TrEMBL record:
Protein name: GntP family permease
Organism: Streptomyces coryli
Alphabetic keyword roster: Membrane, Transmembrane, Transmembrane helix
Taxonomic lineage: Bacteria, Bacillati, Actinomycetota, Actinomycetes, Kitasatosporales
MF GO annotations: gluconate transmembrane transporter activity
Stretches with biased composition (Gly residues): 221-232
Any matching Pfam family: GntP_permease
Segments passing through the bilayer: 61-79, 99-122, 143-169, 175-194, 267-287, 299-321, 341-360, 380-408, 415-436, 456-480
Transferase listed as a keyword: no
Ranges of compositional bias, category Acidic residues: 206-218
GO CC aspect terms: plasma membrane
């Protein structure tokens, strides 16, 4: 009954949002209440789990979201992302930009913390979208989904990759070779296939995108960050990717006076507040994976500190370039956006916590047979299925991958499949259908400026497609290793 109640809870949340257009925060709490009570947690236990889940997810990503959104708002005020997009468009052209983004995110910058990557990359994708025509936004959103999440589970030092490799005792050097070959290829193929579907009418801008509001110069761009009331149908809206408004990119204030008292910095200097945190996080993760023990590296590589360092750098650079009033306005826009994202993200964590209390992983472990006579393909499919079902229920790719690895590890010796291939199959399955019980989903929606329906297409469908595409690639790898 646990699996049935979980499925009903997830379906209830989706239907409440899509049909009567209930606010996502309310729908998520209703789904959490139903599941907790139906699964036997009791009234008090359900409420305690909801509160604890909210607190746990805030402890994990609250500062990351806050620092990242403020960092993005300051960088946007200096035109950094606009310059980068224009440079990429000049070099690659609109048609190749999504592939460059998906490839870079999955191979060059494997997602150590997917929430951090989303906050930093979403404004870039959103700003480039209008230059690519009618389907620019979903194409960039799909590339973002595939690049970030495929890198997270396949490419070292993605945390999902490191966790699964450790639990299955797969050498990181082996995972590095297999993951680097399979991950970017899966991301690029997924982006290509999603683009073909968009051309066949899969996307409807009228229902899948949040309409842009006209800029309000009298309010210094405040109309662009109007919160959840805009966009209609209960869809939370944060203008221009939650960290940017048209007013924020302007160098002229509403009074006609220049906002910048110095020329805007060159592109390489503007991007340092993004590049430095990513390098710090990557260095810390690689040092940890290599067994290097250093308190200093651990401190510098902590994502919260790394993003805070980037925020301080962006703030100092903005104060050097802009007037104090302009910097204050950029920070205010960031604070406004942060509050809305944190609330929805936290409630999404509450649903995941309730699901975690139901013990669904034990139910799934009973369905898996360690029959040594199973073929390689059947074994890979079962491993993929376990990880996929865990992700559907738990709502966290990382937790699903770790739980699946914990189920498979004790019986791994009885399976006639190399451990590295099992690790790839777990990563592939844990990608499947990232949806409404994930905090990433509720961050993705306002940051990209899409409705819940649009997020189900550009994120849930894309991760499902990436999962199936990578499954085919994993099966192909199993025949040559």
């Amino acid at each position: 009954m646990t699996a049935l109640h979980t499925a009903i809870a997830i379906l209830l949340v989706v239907l409440l949002i899509l049909v009567p257009k209930v606010e996502p925060v309310i729908a998520l709490v209703i789904g959490s209440l139903y599941l907790g009570i139906a699964a036997g947690l009791g009234f008090e236990g359900t409420i305690e789990t909801i509160v604890a889940g909210f607190g746990d997810i805030m402890a994990e990503v609250g500062l990351l979201i806050g620092f990242g959104v403020l960092l993005g708002s300051l960088l946007n005020s200096m035109g950094a992302l606009q310059k980068l997009v224009e440079k990429l468009l000049r070099i690659l052209g609109p048609g190749k930009l999504p592939y460059a983004l998906a490839g870079a995110l999955s191979a060059v910058f494997p997602s150590i913390y997917v929430d951090v990557q989303l906050v930093l990359a979403a404004p870039l994708a959103k700003r480039a979208a209008p230059r690519m025509g009618r389907y620019g936004l979903p194409m960039m959103g799909g590339a973002l989904s595939a690049g970030i999440l495929v890198g997270y589970v396949f490419v070292v030092p993605g945390l999902g990759t490191l966790a699964v490799a450790g639990l299955l005792h797969v050498p990181l050097s082996t995972m590095l070779v297999y993951g680097f070959a399979l991950g970017p290829l899966a991301a690029l193929l997924t982006t290509f296939l999603f683009g073909r579907l968009l051309r066949r009418g899969f996307w409807n801008p009228e229902t899948d995108e949040v309409p842009e509001e006209p800029d309000d110069a009298e309010n210094g761009g405040a109309a662009g960050s109007s919160g959840g009331a805009a966009g209609g149908g209960g869809e939370p809206v944060i203008k221009d990717g939650a960290v940017a408004t048209a007013a924020a990119t302007s160098t002229t204030s509403a009074t006609g006076e220049p906002d910048s008292h110095r020329p805007l910095p060159p592109l390489y200097l503007s991007l340092l507040p993004i590049i430095v945190p990513l390098l710090l996080i990557a260095t810390g993760a690689i040092a940890d994976a290599a067994g290097v023990k250093s308190d200093l590296l651990t401190f510098l590589g902590n994502p919260a500190f790394a993003l805070f360092a980037g925020l301080v750098g962006a703030y100092a650079l903005a104060r050097w370039v802009h007037t104090g009033e302009r910097v204050d306005r950029a920070m205010t826009e960031g604070f406004h956006s942060t509050g809305q994202i944190l609330l929805v993200t936290g409630v999404g964590g509450s649903l995941g916590a309730v699901i975690g209390k139901t013990g669904l992983d034990k139910v799934l472990s009973d369905m898996f047979s360690a029959d040594a006579g199973m073929s390689t393909v059947v074994t890979i499919l079962l491993v993929w299925l376990v990880a996929a079902l865990l992700h559907l229920a738990i709502g966290s790719i990382g937790v699903a991958a770790i739980a699946a690895a914990g189920i498979i590890a004790p019986i791994m010796g009885d399976l006639a499949v190399p451990p590295a291939v099992l690790a790839l199959a777990i990563g592939s399955g844990s990608l499947f259908a990232l949806q409404v019980n994930s905090n990433f989903f509720w961050m993705f929606q306002p940051l990209l400026g899409v409705t819940t329906r649009g997020a189900l297409k550009a994120l849930t469908f894309v991760t499902s497609l990436a999962s199936v595409v990578s499954l085919v690639l994993v099966i192909a790898v199993s025949f040559v290793v």
